Amino acid sequence: MKKRIQSILLAVLMLLSALPLGMVDTAYAAALASGKCGDSATWTLDNTGTLTISGTGATYNYDMDDDGNSAAPWCTKARIQRVNKVVVNSGITELGYSMFSNCTQLTSVSLPSGLKRIGSCLFLGCTRLSTITIPSSVTTIESNAFTHCDSITAITLPGGLRTMGDAVCSQMAKLTTATVSGGVTYLSNYAFNDCPSLKTITLPNTVKSIGICAFRYDTALKDVYFNGSVTQWTSIQIAGEGNSALYNADVHCTGLPAPTVTGGNDAQGRPTLKWNAVSGAAKYEVYRARSKDGDYIKYSTVTGTSYTNISYIENGNTYYYKVRALDANGTAGAWSSVVSVTYKQTLSAPTVTGGNDSQGRPTLKWNAVSGAAKYEVYRARSKDGDYIKYSTVTGTSYTNTSYLANGTTYYYKVRALGSDGTAGPDSTPVSVTYKAPFGAPLVTGSKDSQGRPALKWDKVTDAAKYEVYRARSKDGTYSLMSTQSATGYTNTSYLANGTTYYYKVRALKANGTASAYSSVVTITYGTVPTPAAPAMRSAKADSAGITVSWDTAANAVTYNVYRTADAGSSWTQVASSVKGSSYKDTTVQKGVKYGYKVRGVAADGKTLGPMSSTGVTAKVTAASTTPDYVKLKSAKSDPGNGILLTWESAADAKTYNVYRKVDGASGWTLLASSVSGTSYRDTSGKRGTTYVYTVRGVAADGKTLSRTYNTDGLRATVR
Description:
about 725 residues; Leucine-rich repeat, LRR (right-handed beta-alpha superhelix); 55 strands
């Protein structure tokens, strides 16, 4: 036994000796201490001196004493001398105040992409830290974040940076090179104060002002590289106090010149821009506003020297554009002069042809209209009748699949819409007759005296026989249960009590040609009493829809309502589990005559009675009027309470839909629907983000929207 143990130990030692040194160290790394450092963040300090921050969101802020010592749990006297490496894992978005201040043994830091905020005094007094890479995702660096990081020789503040606290890089003894590459407009007070070794600094052309003592005691400063023009540099407001080093340095303006831009219209009347190629430019940014001195929004980035504005334009509106060049590093040059162009839309009427698909339904095709973003399809019952909009499509074809009566001729016309919703002229009307194919059976379900599923259907013209199929779920696999000439079927086998089965039937001609399947009928096998057939009472129409009523039926707890249009033979379920003996159908259209039938539902919610033997009919007498354009009033930020959006009431609008997008993004997202009144408070936005809002009116039918709307919207930033 002793020799065996010795052999095992020898094998383990040989295995460890074969591992690289780093792997052996990792294998023996063990946590010394751990805990919580945020609502959803944790920390672990292992015996190698590595402090790991994990989790999501923001960490806690920690107090700091007068000597700069942090109150963080890893900064106790027993632990702080162990911390030589910090690893912040992905998911952490904010590092709080003074988390690592006076960690004098810290030499290595790894920060994750996605980090947004570096808190005050985060690395204050980390005297052995010699290098640090700040992710481009960081937008805020607070005061004294790197003060007294005396071993760092070069630092780059990232491209995403927008806010700097005071003294961010103050008193860094060995700092020789600094780069501010972000969109910072204000270089803070004491930003690089008392950096006696600082020789070179690079500043972005977004800087508009420099605070007091930003470069105080920077006696070695020799070269300032400004990524802008001389004109831009001379316009910067530089505080006189404590910035003599900046005045004495050589300033190198490396920015690109402004392009010369001309404007016009393309063949479709859309605004077009052209400009000269700028030497050193890799690409160009195009900005647009609704007035010369208005709020300019970036609309495109292109590599060529021309641009056509194809979206978010309204016919007759004048738009204002300016362009700037960017070099290979993404540094922007000076702005061009502003150019104005008026959109003059030119849409033609499509040429439409009509026909029938394989099911005899009317189909339309037309040519693509230059400048069209989409097309509206309208239908009437006569050539000069009342045309109702049936669909809006982006393609150049349409098939009418609903509200059809066999043998009836329908009239269609199509018009093109521009990207702003402006409509072109109507096409010449086209007539198509609906020719229904071999029809599907209309099936009803019930139970026999033994609770077994029983089906009945009307005879289908030209049918020689019928196939009955069954499944265990509505969308499951259907198995053939019977082929027969009779118009009824009772399922007598392969039944489990209390189980729900799903049936569908199709007709077959003598030559084997099959019809479409019937609607699915659901029946639960068991002893639940089958509801009787309801007796229909009336169907009454008003401007808001059709109210259908019936007499209550024995054994029925709720009711399903079915509808057909224009005396058609195809019934569609429009409501289920209706309590009481009436239902109002608000999904109807003007000028269409509708028929209704009802069937009862038993207490199990599954067992259906037979459909009412006769139906009731009614014709809609009025249609919803399209609401007017909604005029926006204001979008105001209420700190802590989101954005309050207000608008003027619009004629024929019963409610309103509110839409939102992030500033600079394309495409609107529905934020709120069926809003009553003329205001809406958005509390779902992210702090610091600028959003654009617009509103469309909704008619009384709950579907018809304002045809045009404010495509520019109103902007506000969440505070």
